[in-house]
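Case study 2.
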Amino acid sequence: MTASLSAPLHRFLPLLALGICTIGTAAAQPRLRLSETTLGPISIAVGANGATRSIDATNPGSGSLTLSARSSVSWIAPTIGASRVCSLGGNTCVPIQFGLNTASLARGVYTGIVTVSDPAAIDAPQTITVTVQVGGSVPDATTLFVPTRAGATASASFATNSPIQGAPSTTSGGNWLSLAFDGASSFAFTLPYVVRVTNPGLAEGTYNGALAISGSIFAPDNKSIPVTMRVTSQPILALSQTSVRTRLALTAPQQTTFINCTNAGLGALTLADNAATVSAGASWLTATRFPGTNFIQLNANSTNLAPGNYSATVTINSNAVNGPLTMPYDFEVVAAGPPQVSAGGVVDNATYAGNDELGRGVIAAVFGEQLLMRDPVAATSLPLQTTLSGLRVLINNQAAPVYYASYNQINFQIPFDAPEGLATVSVERDGVRSNLTAVRIVNRAPRLLTFGSFPGYGIIVNQDGTYPLPPSAGLGVAARPARSGDTLVIYALGLGPTVPAVLSGVGAPTSPLASVSPTPGVVIGVNSIAQVDSITPDFAGLTPSFVGLYQINVRVPTSVEKGNAVPLYINFGNLVSNRVTLAIQ
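Prediction:
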């Protein structure tokens, strides 16, 4: 067992950059809850104002809300309406109304942020993102690139405010064009659609078609869209994101964003060292290729800027057939102020799921703004201290051990003795406290760690130190599928108290080992039934010398599902973790 416990955990240290939080009582204050935090995209005719939209605020706490609203852009006019009985129940709702003064806007997509505040409320302030599509979202024309490989596809997305139909036609190459509804959206008036082209095996060349759009209640959407499919044997540049929006306070360290440039085509994609350029006049933004990679590093700096909104474009040059590509960068500069924790921004470091329960002893992250106004800093020794670079995280006014801090994230440990139930979290920076946000603490909330760069696959180690990933995972680590009889080490968070008990912030002991009681079961395979096929591990407990990191050592059964994406989870009876994936041969 001891050999398995000594797996190469140093490789996971970057994955455990956690967050800071502070908790206080949540019972005696109002709480802000919004029915939505996003409006749109809303289609509006050119030269017209949009219809007024509304979002409801409710108070699941005590007392009364005293709300105010502020917009980051002049074309959104937010107002707070009179309280009324909610349409879906007896609770009191406060409508937040949004006047959309868009008549002066040219055709295009515009986004603004409305901040809803109440200085006395938990989970306040909160922001609402409002997006309008002046002139509609249906494009005038679309060109898509696909490689010379039968079955290769490419797509472009847009969203409408009512159902539409799209009749495809092509003048060359057969039936390669379609319009598909892309599933339900989170907003009743926003319907996502995808224009898709599929190469049926065509030779390199240009192929033309069209989509006849009809049925929309927004008249400008009803039109014919020319669609061009370019079949190519050359590289096709694809970006990890096609636009960037950041917000930064005056005097804060620069904000860095990385854009991953990948090849959706054939051949080798190459970027020059000076592959990215920024539009003229945007001296606050720099774009450089990260040496030796296909990542573009964007640095936004608020120095010498006044509070307000700034826009730029970034052009990325490569040898790709669809280049150069240009992406917009929107930058909002705000005045320096106290730290601000995002509502629902305290999450565990395994799934990062908002509004999730957090187990005692879990490694957690708190997200927000102006949490640290200096360069990022990490703890360098154990036991972890409750103050790091002038920052504290308070859970019900009790300081928590802190791992790491940056401008918008602090990593910390929920203390093992934190009281169960609803608690509040805040950040204190150099003696100045943030707003409060609520989190629910439970005895245990098991969560399995995953590789961020290979989504869904668990951080699991084979007994020879390799990782049970498909050989083509491309993570820069030794990978091979697990085998029957192997002992796997599965890494997890939130498994709760141990025997013997371990103090918060202290590295787990090597002797005696800190074991979880009761021992969880491990379930492997899509057709497994937890009550029947649950495997008892050889060990489940805290990883020696680490804070808040658990591991489960389990032997792979002889009869087990094989494949490159076999599901795995753990359970404490009816208490079940998230599912992860591994490769088994």
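The helical segments are 2-5, 530-533.
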